[in-house]
Amino acid sequence: MDTEIRVGVYNNKKTHVRFLILFFVFIITAISYADRVALSIVGSDLIKEMNLDVATLGRIFSAFGIAYMLMQIPGGYLLDRYGSIKIYAYSLFFWSLFTFLHGFVIFAPAMYIVVSLALLQFLLGVAEAPAFPANTRIVATWFPTKERATAASIFNASQYFSLAVFSPLLSWVTYNFNWQYVFVVMGVIGFIFTLIWSRLVRNPLEHRSVSAAELSYIEQGGAMIHMDKPKVKNKSPSMSNIKKLITNRSMFGIFLSQYFLNTITWFFLVWFPIYLVQAKGFPVVKAGLVAAIPAIFGFSGGILGGVFSDFLLKKGFSLTVARKIPIVIGMLLAACIVLCNYTNNNTIIIILMALAFFGKGFGALGFPVITDTAPKEMVGLCAGIFNVFGNLAPVVTPLVIGTLVKETHSFNAALIYVSCSALMSMCCYLFIVKDIKRFEI
Question: Keyword set for this entry (predicted)?
Answer without folding.
Answer: Cell membrane, Membrane, Transmembrane, Transmembrane helix
